[in-house]
Amino acid sequence: MKERTVLQTPTPALSGQVKGYSAKRGSQPFGTPVFMSVCIIGAGGGGVNRVERIIFPAGRTGSVKKAFFSYILLGKPACDMVSFAWKAARTAAAACETGRAVCGCGAVKGPVVPWNGEQGRIAALNFVSLRFCAFFVAAVFVYYVLPRRARQPWLLACSCFFYMCWNPAYIVLILFSAFSTYLCGRALAVLGAPAAGNRGRRRAAMAVSLAANLGILFFFKYYNFFAQSANGLLAARGFPAVPLLGVLLPVGISFYTFQAIGYTVDVYRGSVSAEQRFWRYLLFISFFPQLVAGPIERSGNILPQLQLPARFSYERAKSGLVLMLWGYIQKMVVADRLALLADTVYAQGGALGGWATATATVLFCFELYCDFSSYTDIARGAARILGVELMENFRSPFLSQSVAEFWRNWHISLSSFFRDYLYIPLGGSRRGLARTCVNTMVVFLCSGLWHGAAWTFVAWGLLHGLYLVCGRLTLPLRKRLYTALRVPYGCLPARLWRTAWTFALVAFSMIFFRAGGMDAALSMVRSLLRPGAFPGREAVLAWGMDGPDLLLSAVCVAAVVLCDVLRRRWGSLSARLLQKPLAVQWAVLLAGVLTVAIFGMYGEGYVEKPFIYFQF
Question: How far apart are CA 99 and CA 76, in angstroms?
Fold first, then answer.
């Protein structure tokens, strides 16, 4: 009989002191244990505590999963479901303090490397877990069974429950962010349109809202970063150190804070009307498909869709399921597989040589793309089934012919946010070339800090800003060079060259994005500059993949590139599929399901890998 590792920890998220012992599967250390499928957010030194279940002493609580399905199948009223969700969230919070955790059997395939001191976490309702699938099916079923006037409150309850499964206490932060920006919007509505007499009060209302939300974001995400940086300078001059805070980064805080700020600015500008009902605005902020990792939605897109719940549509549900399936393929088949080699090589900090660094960096680019794009596709598909259309977040970014074009196609919701709310207010490109370059560098400095509180992310952001500035300054020279060489600027070889060069620049910057610190990043860069002879078969196998996995990874990368090329030519592939005969649709869907079942990274001995952008 296989052994299971049982972790007993009073507060694993804060202490990081976890003691382990073995217990056979089915053993009952506290009498008759009761299982609850939840997770613990672990921070122990920046590592990842991957937890499948909590074991409670006998009599502490019933099976939450069993109760959940019982309530659904018995058709209990929505108010009972909300009460159950609240009790389940409170139980999860108590579990983090008093429970036991049981880790899965076997070893994790590939090392887990903490990024830049950020605490890793595995979601209680991770999109790729059966827990989320059960939750989503139940949420959709009850949503369309309820009367239309009760659907949005039910969706709000589901969203709050979804977030509280991560850490129940941090629901207070969402409530604070939503309430402060809602009050600001109402105040701006009461003050009316800008006029000579109220312009100062309108600015004061917006300033208070921005300061409150950015202050919360700074406290949880950036205080320790700036304090540690200051301590290095203070220690060199003999001054006492600034105290650090032992707080966890609330999941999704960067996303929903920016979404709330965007609403405040839009109301201030008059581009949207202030929402009158707080619960509807809270649903806009906390809508669970896009709450944790975006896209960062605009109030002008989502709030009108929440005014009146949509009726169930078979075509819309089918389209959403196709989009979700494509997201699962990207995540479980492509991204998690490429992570095996990328994690292994980056864990060595360049010690495996330049060829290993180059290969791992290229694969990490596709891992990051497929990982983030998969979350967006699953979120968009889930929202579409619920009658809400989210914005597109990626448009074949690795086919871009310049870094500027890359940022028009990569993380579109964030890049458009910085464009509309930072770059243009700073003056954009309207105040001369020098001011344009400064504005670009400021935007990408903020973009780097948004991604993470670490100097590696600052370097990554500044590097992209430098790319854009150099691209703008050298564009006339490059066009004259094409003319002198008599090479048409739009010919296929020229386009392929620009695409390859753009990808090389982006991939180089990803070294700083992925490395665990500046020393590790610089070590990786040095190894890249001294690649040496191409390694033999045994050396390549030490990179973290065996032969079949390497071959399958190459096929995956080629498939992703092919899909992006077809998307550029034909538009949405899922929409094109749904125009085909029903037999073709079912054949493609069955092939997708079999692809996940056969080639997906899951099962006993493998721990589900959280989405990369969860840490931001």
Answer: 29
- Kindly state the helix (H) or strand (E) to which residue 459 belongs, with its residue range: helix 455-484
Element housing 102 (H / E): strand 100-102
Candidate from 124-128, 371-375, 432-436, 508-512 with smallest mean pLDDT: 124-128
- CA-to-CA separations, 525 to 320, 351, 358, 459, 480, in angstroms, rounded: 42, 11, 9, 13, 32
Buried b (16+ CB within 10 A) or exposed e, 125-154: bbbbbebbebbbebbbebbbebeeebbbbb
Instruction: Give the CA dihedral 506, 510, 512, 514, nearest 10 degrees.
Output: 170
Nearest Cα neighbor of 373 from 340, 413, 402, 341 is 413
Tens of pLDDT, residue by residue over 418-477, are 999 999 999 888 888 999 999 999 999 999 999 988 999 999 999 999 999 999 999 889
| Helices 130-145 + 64-74 axis angle, to 10 | 20
User: So what's the pLDDT on residue 2?
Assistant: 35
Q: Is the dihedral of CA 175, 176, 177, 179 positive or negative?
A: positive
Residue 358 phi, psi dihedral angles, 5° rounding? -65, -45
DSSP string, 289-318: GGTTT-----HHHHHHHHSSPPPP-HHHHH
Q: What is the DSSP letter of 580?
A: S
Mean pLDDT of 280-305: 91
126-147 confidence digits (pLDDT tens)? 888 888 899 999 999 999 999 9
CA distance 313 to 331: 27
Amino acid at 268: Y
Nearest Cα neighbor of 504 from 467, 543, 479 is 467
What is the percentage of the chain residues whose pLDDT exceeds 90?
43
| Contact present, 303 and 280 (Cβ < 8 Å) | yes
Q: Kindly list the distances between the CA atom of residue 563 and the CA atoms of 33, 397, 585, 611, 612, in Å, as whole numbers in the listed order.
A: 48, 12, 17, 21, 22
- The answer to whether 78 and 146 have CB atoms below 8 angstroms apart is yes
Which structure tokens are listed for 277? 């009902």
Which tokens hold the place of 466?
């430098």
Look at the pTM and tell me if it is higher than 0.70. yes
Report the SS3 class of residue 54.
strand
Structure tokens at 262: 């965007």
Let me know: does 48 contact 29? Beta carbons within 8 Å. no
CA nearest 336: which of 161, 540, 552?
Answer: 552
What angle do helix axes 314-328 and 582-599 make, rounded to 10 degrees?
30
**CB count in 10 Å sphere of residue 244:** 12
For the four alpha carbons of 157, 159, 161 and 167, in that order, the dihedral sign comes to negative
Burial class of 317 by CB neighbour count within 10 A (0 to 12, 13 to 18, 19+): middle
β partners of residue 35: 55
Q: Are 343 and 110 in contact (CB under 8 A)?
A: yes
- Cα dihedral across residues 53, 54, 59, 65: positive or negative: negative
Tokens at 221, concatenated = 């995400």
- Write out the H or E segment, with its range, that includes residue 34: strand 34-36
Amino acid at 12: P
**Cα distance between residue 489 and residue 138, in whole Å:** 54
Q: Measured between alpha carbons, how far is 212 from 175 in angstroms, rounded to an integer?
A: 13
Which sequence positions are flagged as catalytic? 451
Please tell me whether residue 7 adopts helix, strand or coil conformation: strand
Q: Could you tell me where the DSSP H helices lie in 117-252?
A: 130-145, 148-164, 171-191, 199-217, 223-236
The neighbour count for residue 97, using CB atoms within 10 Å, is 11
